[in-house]
Specification:
The complex is a heterodimer. Chain A is mainly alpha-helical. Chain A is built from ten helices and three strands; from the N terminus they run ααβββαααααααα. In chain A, about 70% of the residues lie in helices and about 10% in strands. In chain A, strands 1-2-3 form a three-stranded antiparallel beta sheet, covered by helices on one side. In chain A, helix 5 packs across helix 6 and helix 6 runs antiparallel to helix 7. Chain B is an all-alpha fold. Chain B has one domain. In chain B, helix 3 packs antiparallel against helix 4, helix 3 packs across helix 6 and helix 5 packs antiparallel against helix 6. Chain B starts with a helix and ends in a 10-residue tail after the last helix. Classes of the chains: A mainly alpha, B mainly alpha. Chains A and B meet through helix 2, helix 3, helix 5, helix 8 and helix 9 of A and helix 1, helix 4, helix 5 and helix 6 of B.
Chain lengths: ~250, ~150
């Protein structure tokens, strides 16, 4: 094995780690996957450390000095299909150790694979908002109003995402708009309870998954990951509450 | 009546989230059915008088066992199912109310709600971990189930 090959192997391993983190994999899975990949290509030893936002891997190959590569992960969007396919690919890599160029192309192919069509996502937002509005005790009309608003929020959210990459600012802006639109709906008597319509829409963006997963991370010993995700979830929830409160003042 | 409508709504909400999280078509049904299981078990446990936290623990554990089973049937990481199926249980509402009270200066109510959200999420996390570890200990990972 040449030095360039060793470089390439470490490169695909951290690329895989980066891709996994980007679609919402747990850090334990990422660390495990990266080390399995380099070991299956014949590395002597490997140390991987991952946080939700960064990934470091240091590898020793027989006869070379140690190599380190790191990645910075800027945005995460949960995508279970990609997670599933990347996981499958990594299993395949460990068994058949294909050449790094092929792996790189496969990862790229998985990352650019399509999501559900936009129209279906709009419907999904409506289902979540409407479902939770009734779930928390709203009437059927509340559910209908929340579904209408939830579908709107898909457009509003993607619009704000184009303006800024700051997650908190996006959350503040959509919750402000969402709260305002909810009171307009109630004023026009589409839906009865403002709080039920609001909570339905809030459930779309409240970091419930992140909140519970952060505690899961804490319990399994990924303390820094757990803490950072916990704080992130709390701050995001606070921002959303602030947005709806401000919308209440406007009303 | 509330229970029935809640169960229906939890399935609808799960379906929505499953699409948002881009779960493949062939797994959508099982993911939604998991949502039904998680809220069904939670409601039954509460009805038995077990209290919110213990019920959350049991519901999360049962749901995770279901997810681990479906993961083996569908050959996919269990996380895919765990994330979606536990959605009806997540204390998102309590987390929001806690922050809402704090923003409105109702400090004590906010703190109570916040502690509730935290303990509830912690119970769920404990349930998920216990179930995951149990399945891993019982079923030795075979060649096609690398992780989870």
């Amino acid at each position: 094995m040449t030095r360039a090959e060793a470089d390439k192997i470490l490169f695909i391993a951290v690329s895989m780690g980066e891709a996994l983190l980007g679609c919402g994999a747990e850090v334990a899975r990422v660390e495990d996957t990266v080390s399995r990949i380099v070991l299956s290509y014949g590395a002597e030893s490997v140390d991987v450390f991952s946080l939700p936002s960064t990934l470091f891997a240091t590898v020793t190959f027989n006869g070379f000095e140690t190599k380190t590569q790191s990645r910075r992960i800027r945005s995460v969007s949960t995508d279970m299909t990609k997670l599933d396919r990347l996981n499958e690919l990594s299993r395949e890599i460990c068994v058949s150790t294909p050449d790094p160029e092929t792996v790189e192309a496969r990862i790229e192919e998985i990352l650019t694979s399509p999501h559900y069509p936009y129209a279906l996502q709009v419907i999904a937002y409506a289902l979540v908002a409407g479902g939770f509005a009734v779930f928390f005790g709203g009437s059927v009309t509340d559910g209908f109003a929340a579904a209408l608003l939830g579908a709107q929020l898909r457009f509003i959210e993607s619009g704000f995402r184009k303006l800024t990459s700051n997650k908190l600012l996006v959350a503040l802006m959509w919750s402000l708009t969402g709260g305002f639109l909810a009171s307009i709906l109630v004023a026009f008597q589409i839906g009865e309870h403002l709080d039920m319509i609001s909570i339905g829409c809030i459930m779309l963006f409240i970091p419930g998954v992140a909140f519970t997963n952060s505690i899961r991370d804490l319990f399994v010993g990924d303390t820094i990951t757990g803490l950072s995700r916990f704080i992130e979830a709390v701050v995001l929830a606070m921002t959303i509450a602030l947005g709806f409160t401000l919308a209440g003042f406007v009303h | 009546m509330t229970a029935v409508s809640q169960l229906i709504c939890s399935v609808i909400a799960c379906l929505g989230f499953a699409i948002i999280f881009n779960i493949q078509k062939d797994k959508l049904f099982w993911a939604c059915f998991g949502g039904f299981i998680s809220w069904g078990v939670y409601l039954s446990a509460v009805a038995c008088g077990l209290g919110d936290y213990l019920s959350a623990f049991i519901a999360a554990a049962v749901t995770t066992l279901y997810a681990e089973l479906m993961a083996r049937v569908c050959k996919t990481p269990a996380t895919v199912f765990v994330i979606v199926c536990t959605i009806p249980l997540l204390p998102g509402g309590a987390l929001y109310r806690a922050m809402d009270y704090l923003v409105h200066h109702y400090k004590t109510t906010g703190e109570t709600e916040g502690i509730y959200a935290f303990c509830f999420a912690a119970s769920m996390a404990a349930g998920i971990i216990c179930a995951t570890l149990t399945t891993r200990a019982l079923l030795r990972p075979s060649s096609n189930t690398k992780q989870e």
